[in-house]
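Section 4.2 – Deliverable D4.2 (structural model, holo form)

The reporting period included a commitment to supply a predicted holo structure for the target in complex with S-adenosyl-L-homocysteine. Inputs used:
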Amino acid sequence: MIRDQLMARGIRDPRVLDVLAELPRERFIDPDLEAVAYADRALPIDCGQTISQPYIVALMTEALRLTGNERALEIGTGSAYQAAVLSRLAREVVSIERHEKLFRQATRVLNDLGVTNVRLVLGDGSHGLAAGAPYDRIIVTAAADTMPEELFEQLTAGGILVIPVGDRDSQILRRIEKIDGRPRITDLTACRFVPLVGASTCDTNQ
Ligand code: SAH
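Output (structure tokens):
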């Protein structure tokens, strides 16, 4: 995975490569999918959601340019794989998920893995999480039609937001840096994420 999926496609940051090499991705998915845990694709998780393809996790993480001192906000905890990656590269991570079932599973897996610097929040993160703002980094792992203005506002000066923008069929992964209060936008790649939405519909008893 590291060589063929990540390095071959230009992921260079050794810290990102090390974290993806070490983190047991199979712990974040259904045991039935263990054989394909490191496959070059997104995989289904509960509530009709997905754990992102390893390359996309690496690309988004690298794009955040973490040095270890940051407070980061993730919108869309899902399996908590991305949150666990961030936990090893940032000082503190806050991650919000709208589905209670995923939130509970995420709480369990991070606890089992001994991750202590991630705070999980159950709720709608489509407007960010103003209570803990500002954040040095914000990563959105579900696609928005346009960049929510509130997210940019919740960034520190010099902060970085990574977000997929577009409709269900056509999205672009963007890095938005806050330079002198203005956005500097870099398009990273075409991508396909589940949509960023509001209230939860997943049955918590499933
Ligand atoms: N980062 C995840 C990927 C999860 S897929 C991982 O590593 O597995 C995107 C997630 O965003 C889904 O779990 C979905 O429920 C969640 N999501 C979508 N809209 C949301 C919103 N408005 N607020 C919080 N979470 C949201």
